[in-house]
Design a protein that fits this description.
Elements lengths: L20 E4 H10 L4 E2 L10 E4 L4 H7 L5 E6 L2 E6 L40 E5 L1 H5 L18 E2 L8 E2 L7 E5 L2 E2 L4 E2 L7 E2 L6 E9 L11 E7 L8 E6 L3 E9 L5 E11 L1 H7 L3 E2 L2 E14 L2 E17 L3 E20 L3 E20 L6 E23 L2 E23 L2 H6 L4 E8 L2 E16 L2 E15 L3 E15 L4 E12 L19 E13 L3 E13 L4 E4 L14 E4 L3 E16 L2 E16 L2 E4 L6 E10 L3 E10 L3 E2 L5 E3 L6 H4 L3 E2 L3 E14 L2 E10 L7 E12 L5 E11 L4 E9 L1
Parallel strand pairs: 2-5, 9-14
Antiparallel strand pairs: 1-3, 4-5, 6-13, 7-8, 9-10, 11-12, 13-14, 15-16, 15-46, 16-17, 17-19, 18-20, 19-20, 20-21, 21-22, 22-23, 23-24, 24-25, 24-26, 26-27, 27-28, 28-29, 29-30, 30-31, 31-34, 32-33, 34-35, 35-36, 35-37, 37-38, 38-42, 39-41, 40-45, 42-43, 43-46, 44-45
Length: 760
């Protein structure tokens, strides 16, 4: 079960006793999923824009509404199935019969594409976003993947589209699409990952886990984003769009009668110079493109074959009088999935994928003072992966198990010559950097998992699981192995209240693509480990929904990492004098997340989210706050939505991020230990008001949609960090000293974006 009901459901009233209202059919099906009904349907039958009028969110209401759409609901072997109903219409149940009293398997969740099956996600912290939900959330650059930044427990100052979840690092996030792990699913990946490489026009749903995620997801400690594609989009076969940051075309189609199938082709390209101007004022030419081709075909009534290829490219250049930077990244994903039902109780998915990731990053600094240098970094990674997942139902009990095997190889070539200047001497870090590194790690990795789910007692659900992983590409370390036991419990206190508890161990090895050669590291760190506890309360009274969670995360075997102490949002982070290596012995994160959703009117909904968080590293015997440890965070939104238009506004406020304050005068030869000053000051609190508006018109068989988003409407100067100027002085005794002058750096002021989409 999701942490809270899906954001799309917050756009309607869920009251079972409310007056009749119109809603999207898929939203009604999703709400029944939250009530744990097993409903199977084909995306070829249930289109995104199908709408129904119901008086309650119930199985009976669904049964009564479907005939108007030429559909009907049948129960087959304990599973509810939506099928076409040419004639006659769906028969009404016998007098006194109540379809809600049937006995579907309580915890089977089957929605969306042809063979989606049990998920076993009832105890974790997760939310599902539909395209309708993503459309109405005001986000920077109209990038719908940024909806994750508004979730409780997520840290952000609006620059990166990649979230930091519940105090974790950004690399603790697993992103999956088509069952394939995406290595860098963000454009401008070398410059704060400011824009996602996922075209949301091709998305059916996005599941975002912020903790307690199922054991089928491995090798990341903080979060998961699992993206499912939409193969069919109502009667529209083509979308053409132009916006401030992206131009795209999507084409869909169907083929075959005895073996029906769908295909999808999407192409997108853009120039992100307008976006980067708000992050760093540099002349540049940051171009990107991405494309995807997908096809699925029904080999039989019980099996589907899906094939796909995805390409993404960044070609980024920045230049001014003193600095130059370029980044070229190309990524290919090729994959094939065989999804099958075996009888009524077994589902399997066999996946084969290939990834080719290439990066070249060049930097140059030519400042007049004794500081600057060059950097040339190249990285090539290939990965071949085979995965098999199986779900088995034993009555109302669910068993999941699977395995994965991968072969990866990397090629790193790095050259740098850098002089970091006097500030590096003051911090006691390496001032003169000269590196020539070549590394070619390769080897296998993989793992297996076993998970179960059953009702232990009336209203008490238990989900035990165990995951095992290994890696044998570790340089100078040999083979590494990890065990990850997890346990979830959910208890129904009544029709409207549920308690949840999740305990588990999460391990994270460094992938071959994560060797930190660019900062001079030539070995993989030992796999990290995190033990996590999450306790949650869900309360749902229709028009009012409330979710509360407390969590605690304890990290061990932390890897070394590199950060910029003063301001991380710079063009050449690896060359800056405040670039320091951090080697925590331990780390912890703890917090409270509150989520309240209110339906004021059928067309007007509101949401209020509050988070309290503390994230710390233990460095050289001291507990030090992480830069992104947002002590208090408040997100509030208001959405007005009718069938053809929507208006929304959202505010985000949180405690200021941390930075490092230095003394104003430092005598020559004095070294300030990093651990003594790291993150010792709070920046100004962050605030942003964002608005969004959308309007669509139907002209015959064509739909025209116009939209506009404005981020940071008030043009608030949110502070990102501190820049230090160093001047040399001498006292009357001839002693040399350095004068340090701080200068606050701001970014991301008002950012407008707009676009138009034609569907036909």
């Amino acid at each position: 079960m999701a942490l809270a009901t899906v954001l799309g459901l917050s756009l309607i009233s869920l009251s079972a006793t409310a007056a009749a209202r119109e809603m999207p059919l898929r939203v009604l099906l999703e709400s029944l999923r939250q009530q744990e009904y097993d409903i199977l349907y084909s995306s070829a039958l249930v289109h995104q824009e199908m709408r129904v009028t119901v008086e309650s969110v119930s199985l009976q209401a669904l049964q009564q509404a479907l005939p108007e759409l030429g559909l009907r609901l049948e129960q087959r072997g304990g599973v509810w199935v939506i099928i076409s109903a040419p004639t006659p219409p769906l028969e009404q149940p016998a007098a006194g019969a109540d379809p809600e009293q049937a006995e579907p398997p309580e915890n089977v969740i089957v929605t969306g594409s042809m063979h989606r099956f049990p998920t076993g996600d009832l105890v974790g912290s997760s939310q599902r976003f539909t395209p309708e939900a993503m459309n109405v959330v005001p986000v920077l650059a109209s990038d719908a993947m940024r909806v994750a930044l508004r979730l409780p427990g997520v840290s952000s100052v609006g620059v990166s589209a990649k979230p930091r979840i519940r105090g974790g690092l950004q690399d603790e996030l697993l992103v999956i699409q088509d069952g394939v792990e995406l290595l860098e699913p963000f454009h401008l990946a070398d410059y704060h990952s400011a824009y996602s490489s996922i075209d949301y026009h091709t998305i059916e749903s996005v599941d975002i886990y912020t903790g307690g995620f199922p054991s089928r997801y491995g090798n990341r400690m903080s979060g998961v984003i699992d993206i499912s594609n939409d193969w069919e989009k109502d009667e529209y076969q083509r979308d053409i769009g132009i916006s401030s940051f992206a131009n795209f075309i999507n084409v869909r189609g169907q083929f075959g009668e005895s073996q029906p199938g769908n295909w999808l082709l999407s192409v997108r390209q853009g120039d992100l110079s307008d976006l980067t101007d708000y992050i760093q004022t540099r002349s540049g030419d940051p171009k990107y493109k991405d494309a995807a081709a997908r096809m699925n075909v029904a080999l039989s009534e019980a099996s589907t074959l899906a094939l796909g290829a995805v390409y993404s490219e960044d070609d980024i250049e920045f230049q001014d009088e003193e600095e130059t930077a370029s980044s070229q990244i190309e990524t290919w994903y090729l994959w094939a999935n065989l999804d099958s039902l075996h009888g009524r109780s077994v589902r399997s998915k066999l996946s084969l994928s290939y990834t080719d990731f290439q990066r070249r990053k060049m930097q140059g600094s030519f400042e007049l003072e004794a500081k600057g240098g060059i950097l040339d970094h190249r990285q090539d990674v290939e990965r071949l992966s085979l995965r098999h997942d199986i779900s088995r139902l034993f009555g109302q009990r669910l068993l999941e198990f699977g395995w994965q095997a991968e072969y990866s190889r990397g090629d790193y070539r790095h050259t740098s010559r850098i002089d970091r200047g006097e500030l590096a001497d003051i911090l006691g870090t390496e001032r003169i950097v000269e590196r020539d590194i070549s590394q070619r790690p390769e080897g296998g990795s993989g793992g297996a998992y076993l998970a179960a789910e059953w009702e232990l007692a009336s209203g008490l659900l238990i989900q035990p699981s165990l995951r095992w992983d290994f890696q044998d590409y570790y340089l100078q370390r040999g083979t590494e192995q990890q065990l990850s036991p997890r346990l979830g419990l959910a208890y129904e206190l009544g029709e409207s209240t549920r308690l949840r508890l999740s305990l588990g161990r999460f391990n994270q090895p460094e992938g071959i693509q994560e060797l930190q050669v660019i900062d001079g590291i030539e070995r993989f760190f030992k796999p990290q480990q995190s033990d996590q506890v999450i306790a949650g309360l869900e309360w749902d009274r229709g028009d009012l929904e409330f979710v509360a969670e407390i969590y605690y995360k304890r990290y061990r075997d932390q890897k070394g990492r590199f950060e910029n102490m003063f301001n991380p949002f710079v063009l050449l982070p690896e060359m800056e004098p405040d670039r320091v290596g951090l080697y925590p012995q331990r780390a912890s994160a703890q917090g409270l997340d509150l989520d309240l959703k209110v339906t004021f009117l059928p067309a007007l909904t509101g949401q209020l989210r509050y988070s309290h968080m503390q994230a710390q590293d233990r460095i050289e015997g001291k507990w030090i706050e992480r830069r992104w440890s947002q002590q208090h965070t408040l997100n509030a939104s208001l959405i007005w939505q009718k069938q053809s238009y929507s208006l929304s506004a959202a505010i985000t406020w949180h405690s200021g991020w941390r930075s490092t304050q230095l003394p104003p005068v430092v005598p020559e030869g004095v070294v300030i230990p990093v651990s003594e000053v790291l993150n010792n000051t709070l920046l100004r609190d962050y605030f942003s008001l964002d608005i969004s508006a959308r309007k669509s018109w139907r002209i015959g068989k064509t739909q025209l949609q116009v939209y506009a988003d404005i981020s940071n409407v008030t043009d608030r100067a949110n502070v990102a960090g501190i820049d230090w100027d160093v001047d040399e002085g001498e006292d009357e005794n001839g002693n040399i000293f350095f004068l340090l002058s701080p200068d606050s750096e701001t970014l991301l002021k008002r950012v407008p974006s707009m676009g138009i989409t034609l569907s036909f």
